[in-house]
């Protein structure tokens, strides 16, 4: 089944050209089915690019998914047309009275800034608090994962001396958990961040379970014991060119970035980039939607108290 998106969203044409199944709102209205309702809080500057990345993954699942796009504020964007934001995005006041099956909170280019210094930090905290009562499961990506650890569990991240950028090998350390079904013992995922959580601190926390980690990049997948919050420290949504685009952007800005590790063939930035995480990214989001959203959420979204979490083992 497809992801359902507004008829004129720019991502629709891109996804259809890539043979990814999407369905317009007008066509979906003809089907008698209760779709999963997923809210995406998009904190990235280039919102159209991030929308398309996430919709690729959501469109690769067997479920019909109804998407709402949420912005953190209504200020003018340097990277996304105002008409696009006004047409396709909602403000929090428009959705705070609703319940959702899933919420995805994206990363943000705020890696070296203290959370309390982020201009919209109060709004982030408000939305995270709201999600714990109004959403079946929340998927935090990269910066959002660190923000979630800080706000929900008072866990501090560590700012790195240099950016963690590249495609790293990870090990599955919990096998018999629904999220990890179908995962290889080892798999790759891209990272692009300036901070890192202490994996031992995460493992010791009574409300959290570490599912996968990397010797080089640290903890990657962490889930709360009640299964309501999934923290992904990397970027499974990235496309083949994304790390290259970031590297070239940083070069142009005079930041002297290191070449992303394990990404370009022979570590040569003039050579081809190698994508080796697509299958993992699709499986991760498919398992999240199936086991932590679809299998748990009530048919009537007004009764989220009916959720019975999976037992974690293995």
UniProtKB/TrEMBL annotation:
The active site is at 142 (acyl-thioester intermediate), 235 (proton acceptor), 237. Transmembrane segments: none annotated. Its main location: cytoplasm. Pathway: Amino-acid biosynthesis; L-methionine biosynthesis via de novo pathway; O-succinyl-L-homoserine from L-homoserine: step 1/1. Keywords: Acyltransferase, Amino-acid biosynthesis, Cytoplasm, Methionine biosynthesis, Transferase. GO terms for cellular component: cytoplasm. It catalyses: L-homoserine + succinyl-CoA = O-succinyl-L-homoserine + CoA. Its EC number is 2.3.1.46. Belongs to the MetA family. It is an enzyme of class 2 (transferase). One of its GO terms (biological process) is L-methionine biosynthetic process from homoserine via O-succinyl-L-homoserine and cystathionine. It comes from Shewanella algae. It is found in: Cytoplasm. The record marks 111 as: Important for acyl-CoA specificity. The record marks 192 as: Important for substrate specificity. HAMAP family: MetA_acyltransf. Transfers a succinyl group from succinyl-CoA to L-homoserine, forming succinyl-L-homoserine. This is Homoserine O-succinyltransferase. Substrate binds at residues 163, 192, 249. One of its GO terms (molecular function) is homoserine O-succinyltransferase activity.
């Amino acid at each position: 089944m497809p992801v359902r998106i507004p008829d004129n969203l720019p991502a629709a044409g891109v996804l259809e050209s890539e043979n990814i199944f999407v369905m317009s709102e007008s066509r979906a209205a003809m089907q008698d089915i209760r779709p999963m309702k997923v809210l995406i809080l998009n904190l990235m500057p280039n919102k159209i690019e991030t929308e398309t990345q996430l919709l690729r993954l959501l469109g690769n699942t067997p479920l019909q998914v109804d998407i709402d796009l949420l912005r953190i504020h209504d200020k003018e964007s340097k990277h996304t047309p105002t008409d696009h934001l006004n047409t396709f995005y909602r403000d929090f006041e428009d959705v705070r009275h609703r319940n959702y099956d899933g919420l995805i909170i994206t990363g943000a280019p705020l890696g070296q800034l203290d959370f309390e210094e982020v201009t919209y930090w109060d709004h982030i905290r408000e939305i995270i608090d709201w999600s714990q009562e109004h959403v079946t499961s929340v998927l935090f990506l990269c910066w959002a994962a660190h923000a979630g650890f800080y706000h929900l569990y008072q866990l501090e991240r560590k700012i790195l001396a240099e950016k963690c950028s590249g495609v790293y090998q990870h090990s599955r350390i919990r096998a018999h958990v629904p999220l990890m079904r179908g995962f290889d013992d080892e798999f790759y995922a891209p990272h692009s961040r300036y901070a890192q959580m202490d994996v031992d601190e995460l493992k010791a926390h009574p409300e959290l379970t570490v599912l996968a980690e990397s010797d080089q990049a640290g903890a990657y997948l962490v889930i709360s014991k009640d299964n309501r919050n999934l923290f992904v420290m990397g970027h499974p949504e990235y496309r083949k060119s994304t790390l290259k685009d970031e590297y070239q952007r940083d070069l142009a800005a005079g930041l002297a970035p290191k070449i992303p590790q394990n990404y370009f063939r022979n570590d040569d930035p003039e050579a081809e980039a190698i994508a080796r995480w697509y299958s993992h990214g699709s499986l991760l989001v498919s398992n999240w939607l199936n086991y932590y959203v679809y299998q748990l959420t009530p048919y009537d979204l007004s009764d989220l108290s009916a959720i019975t979490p999976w037992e974690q083992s293995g």
